């Protein structure tokens, strides 16, 4: 396997809707995911993330453009691409008439794994995702988070070379989320490659080597979380309560974000001293902290929306 796990070139998708105008969900998306990478696809609701993942995982056909999984064109030869991939679909549910143990085992057997391997991987995955106590209960009796754990446990157990996870940790408690992160990190150290979507930007930051931000069917930013933060002018923020009306005095330091009465200024570390001097002279209290990926995302996507 020398080809990239995933490569998309100028991918477009137009949904035709009966009695309504067509929807252009992807308007020329190009992306490459390298071996062993964990890449997060971010974007607002309706940006096109699920559409991209569904095309990449052979569930939906593109309107134009190409997309390859390990060198196989997923539209021309989906049957060649499928053995390499496993998917947690958005809002996927385990089979209601199966228990988690049966669901995982059956799925692994259907993918062609031997009885012994399927059995040991099932048990390992149940333990890992904290499902042992409910492993033999019908899926309909499980809580929402337990069902989602079952979906992720099933896909993690495949150890497939390329995993697509569409909002994998939705509805999970903070412990379960961390278990998913650890499992996904383990898989990539063993050679798998991962493309996931999430609206939890702490998750994107904790988990991904690289990000793509999609807005209205186009990639508007790609890079690391740190690069994204630097692109909004700095990795530090200064929070100034009561200074929302004084944004212009601080505008020369970087992006200013009024929120309620508070003003937040994003600043590069080398200009922090100067900013703090001004805050003191202005009789303001100031708190310094790191810029979060969420703040950078709001600025970058917000700017794009303003431009349009
Ligand atoms: N089957 C469909 N028919 C028509 N339009 C669709 C269909 N599926 C999705 N769309 C539209 O395509 C666009 C992209 O949807 P998509 O589900 O890819 O977004 P998303 O980025 O995954 O959003 P979310 O964060 O809400 O999951 C949206 O405008 C959506 O309304
Ligand atoms: Mg989606």
CATH superfamily of the largest domain: P-loop containing nucleotide triphosphate hydrolases
Number of strands: 14
Strand order of the largest sheet: 6-7-8-3-9-10
Beta-strand proportion: 25-35%
Number of domains: 2
Count of DSSP helices?
A: 11
Determine and state the CATH class of the largest domain. Answer: Alpha Beta
**N-to-C series of helices and strands:** EEEHEEHEHHHEHEHEEHEHEEHEH
What overall form do the CA principal axes indicate?
globular
Alpha carbon gap, first and last residue: 42 Å
Secondary structural class: alpha/beta
Overall average residue pLDDT: 94
Proper CATH architecture of the largest domain: 3-Layer(aba) Sandwich
Provide the fold topology.
Layout: E1 6-15, E2 23-33, E3 38-42, H1 49-56, E4 64-69, E5 72-73, H2 78-81, E6 85-88, H3 100-110, H4 115-128, H5 144-158, E7 162-166, H6 174-189, E8 193-197, H7 201-207, E9 210-215, E10 218-223, H8 225-231, E11 236-240, H9 247-250, E12 256-259, E13 262-267, H10 272-281, E14 287-290, H11 293-307
Parallel strand pairs: 3-8, 3-9, 6-7, 7-8
Antiparallel strand pairs: 1-2, 1-4, 4-5, 9-10, 11-13, 11-14, 12-13
Helix pairs in contact: 3-4, 3-5, 4-5, 8-11
